[in-house]
Specification:
- By secondary structure, this protein is mostly helical.
- The longest helix is centred in the last third of the chain and has 15 residues.
Length: about 500
């Protein structure tokens, strides 16, 4: 690999200048039949409140169930109702968020909007479209968009970050390097910031040795800073080479940079992942000696890892140690504390932290805080309290439910058998109220739950929808569903599932 890197570097010009889940799950109180009406729009995202929701609903409804981006483009372009909608950057940005996992719909909508007289996409919309294409491994389309942006002088360092990250994530690290090499053609400069961006991209995708070679080649032309070395500390830890990470701290000092709380916390996080808490405590002591006190992130990392290792008392002691040190807690700290208290069955104490301590310290809860509380309450069979929290959450402006919010509630419904009533309402709210789409985990949860409840038809319908959305079910899910449909003599369904399993 290093030989390939060196060969490439020699040639590079380093110049230093509605689907079923989206449909309304109606279940009549007089019948246990799941009604699947005409499929509604495919939504994705986290349920942001936006202007023009009626217009969005119209557009998404037209786009639904199209087989290609060209078909999406044509259906919108030929539709009088769609062409009467006044476009805005906010409207398009929301559509792209909703089609975050559906590149064909996103691309078709993007092209249709670009074709509308008087409308010009924002650079943010281009960035989002580039990222969607890269995320869905449509690399040729992504490069074409980057070229469009270059010609329109819309490329920013944020654009470059997305493109390099997607290339590296797809295993094409050489293309990420080439993009850096071509920065001047985008009107951007090769400097410490852009170099750090490249190194960070490579290290996060585990190409740490390649990043190191590039750094050694360019460091005489582009001066490193503390951030450069912290990137390598993170990279070495990511590939389990903590000795190199600790050596990098010495290298920092040799280059006139002082190791920071980030430097130490990264290595502490590595040892936490290894459950090597002796090393963690040694590093905490070293930080104190070097007058580099841990911050809330450090303490939270240690507390969460101790909790994960089921060392709950030690985790709570870390929380006390942080408060004694005068370190101000934040939302993530409280989320971990609530989780730890919940794991030890201290539900009342967790509720007091949420209801009393957080307001007193001026720390606002976020979506994860509510998710943690709801999961804890569901786990302790307090479903009604969990539903009350969900309602409270829905009334907040900056803290809306996401798919993960609903997991424990859906699981609780399946466990208690409330499939025809509460489950239907929850799914209805997810799709029509908060504009959420099921992800792979949610599909699997429902399919497994429906199979256990002997609702094989519903489970198979969801399986078909997963395939249609290019979401690949796990083998275990396929095996369970296959056994259930065979038991119900659903031979056509069994044949399709077996055919799909051969492709896994």
């Amino acid at each position: 690999m290093i030989c390939l890197l060196k060969n490439y570097l020699r040639s590079a010009r380093f110049v230093v200048k509605p689907s079923i889940s989206d449909a309304l799950f109606h279940a009549s109180s007089e019948s246990s039949t799941l009604t699947l009406p005409v499929e509604s729009s495919q939504f994705a995202g986290s349920g942001h409140q936006v202007v023009g929701q009626y217009d969005i609903d119209i557009l998404v409804g037209k786009v639904h169930a199209r087989s290609s981006d060209d078909e999406v483009f044509r259906c919108l372009k030929d539709d009088r109702e769609c062409n009467a909608i006044k476009l805005s950057h906010d409207l398009i940005d929301q559509l792209l968020r909703q089609f975050n996992d559906d590149w064909k719909s996103a691309l078709g909508v993007f092209r249709w909007a670009a074709s509308r007289p008087g409308y010009k996409h924002s650079s943010q919309a281009y960035d989002k479209m580039v990222d969607i294409l890269g995320k869905m491994k449509q690399m040729d389309q992504m490069e074409a968009f980057l070229e469009e942006m270059r010609q329109a002088q819309l490329v920013t360092l944020n654009t470059i970050a997305k493109v390099m990250r997607r290339f590296a994530g797809a295993g094409k690290w050489e293309k990420a390097v080439r993009i850096f090499d071509q920065l001047d053609t985008f009107g951007l400069e090769k400097n410490t910031d852009s170099l750090n961006l490249l190194l960070d991209t490579l290290c996060k995708e585990r190409y740490v040795e390649e990043a190191r070679e590039i750094f050694l080649l360019l460091k005489s032309h582009i001066a490193p800073d503390a951030g450069t070395f912290n990137i390598f500390i993170h990279g070495w830890c990511k590939i389990n080479r903590v000795d190199e990470a600790q050596w990098t701290i010495q290298e920092m000092r040799g280059n006139g940079c002082h190791p920071s709380v980030i430097s130490y916390s990264t290595i502490i996080q590595f040892y936490c992942c290894q459950y090597n808490f002796q090393k963690v405590y040694e590093l905490l002591d070293e930080m104190a000696v070097r007058n580099c006190p841990p911050n809330v992130v450090t303490y939270t990392t240690v507390m969460c890892s101790l909790s994960k290792a089921e060392k709950f008392e030690e985790a709570l002691q870390i929380a006390s140690r942080m408060k004694t040190a005068g370190c101000k807690p934040d939302t993530l700290f409280y989320n971990c504390l609530i989780h730890t208290l919940g794991r030890t069955g201290q539900v009342k104490d967790a509720a007091e932290v949420f209801e009393v301590e957080m307001p007193r310290t001026g720390v606002a809860p976020n979506t994860s805080t509510y998710n943690c509380m709801i999961a804890m309450l569901c786990h302790h069979a307090q479903q009604q309290k969990a539903l009350t929290l969900l309602q409270d959450m829905e009334n907040l402006k900056n803290c809306k439910p996401e798919v993960q919010t609903y997991y424990p509630l859906l699981k609780s419904c399946l466990k208690t058998g409330k499939i025809d009533s509460l489950l239907s309402k929850l799914l209805d709210d997810m799709v029509n109220k908060h504009h959420l789409s099921l992800d792979s985990s949610a599909y699997s949860l429902l399919i497994h739950g429906f199979c256990r409840a002997k609702r094989s038809e519903w489970a198979y319908n969801l399986f078909e929808e997963m395939i249609k959305k290019d979401i690949k079910p796990k083998y275990r899910t396929c095996r369970l569903l296959l056994d259930e449909v065979k038991e119900k003599n659903m031979y056509d369904a069994a044949e399709k599932i077996e055919g799909f399993m051969k492709l896994l």
